[in-house]
Amino acid sequence: METKGYYASVGFFVLLLSGIGLFIALWLSVGFETQNYQRYLIYFQESVSGLSVSAPVKYNGVDVGFVKKIGIDPEDPNRVKLSVDIAQGTPITTDTRAMLNMQGVTGISYIELRGGNRSSQPLTVGRGQKYPVIASSPSLLFRMDAAIDRLSQNVENITGSIGQVFNTKNGELLQNTLVNINGVSKNLKNNSDELNRIVKNADVLFVNLSSASHQIPSLIDNTQDALKNFKQLSQRLDDAADSVQLTLKQSNVMLQSINNQLLPSFMSTLDNIDGLTVRLDDFTQQLSDNPSMLIRGKAPAALGPGETRTSTQNRG
């Protein structure tokens, strides 16, 4: 009986120590402080390789939660759907962005949250959603991979363009161009004396230009004087033009007065002269036909049929 009691005491003591050790381990690892979390959803358009459940979620480098669930979005197989629990009180706003990041050189991934201004509105549940959705941004590796793809495509395009430039036809043209350049070089070498003479002439020309440049100020002064004289002449011409215009206006007024006053009287006189001329022509013709009318006077007109002298006189 004593042996059995001994073993029971030892077993109880071992269990007690084990419980105490487990309690201390839990206390050292997670402590006993309770934390309330809020569920959020994140959708990524890239691979989340290296990310696992319980991976940390950090806000500007500070741990604020952990990944709860990882899966494929049933509505879009190209997207990865993440469920994350973030501590309440974390400033998750409408402009907060989630990014997949790598921790050191170990390759372990975690979620990095960035952005958010004081004036931004808190992120809430949208219509038809169960949890708020945090918008995602491409990770650094994804952007590098896309940049490398674009660079490779550009290099391929450049290689194709270079191949088109150096095809058979363009190669012949390039060879002909090199031959022509070689010919030009030989001609320059053979005409080096002529080139030296041209260079010397250019030096002389520059010297003459330099000496002529000293005369430019006096030439400018003469030009300014000529411009002043021309301006004075223009002013005189303007004055003369104004005087001529005034004279023309006065002449126009005088002609208008002549036209209104003298011309009607002159026209009336011409009409009277014309009538007098007609009567003189008639008298001259009658005198030519009957010269005796100067002594006898003008003969009476001949009687018409049935007329008598008395009736003619009465009518007259």
Q: How is this structure best described in words?
A:
This protein has 316 residues and is α/β, with parallel strands linked by helices. It has a domain at 37-137. It contains seven helices and seven strands. Strands 1-4-3-2-6-5-7 form a seven-stranded mixed barrel. The relative contact order is 0.05. Residues 311-316 have low confidence and may be disordered.
- Strand arrangement in the largest pleated sheet: 1-4-3-2-6-5-7
How does the major sheet shape up? 7 strands, mixed, barrel
Cα radius of gyration in angstroms: 62 Å
Counted beta strands: 7
Binned strand content: 15-25%
- Gross morphology is elongated
- Measure the end-to-end span: 202 Å
The computed structural class is: alpha/beta
Overall mean pLDDT stands at: 78
Number of helical regions: 7
Name the helicity range. 55-70%
User: What series of H and E elements makes up the topology?
Assistant: HEEEEEEEHHHHHH
Low-pLDDT segments, ≥5 res: 311-316
In short, what is this structure?
The protein is an alpha/beta fold and 316 residues long.
Keywords:
316 residues; alpha/beta; 7 helices; elongated; disordered C terminus
Write the layout of secondary structure elements.
Layout (H helix, E strand, L loop, with lengths): L1 H28 L7 E8 L11 E4 L2 E11 L7 E8 L9 E7 L4 E7 L18 E4 L3 H26 L2 H23 L1 H23 L1 H74 L3 H4 L12 H7 L1
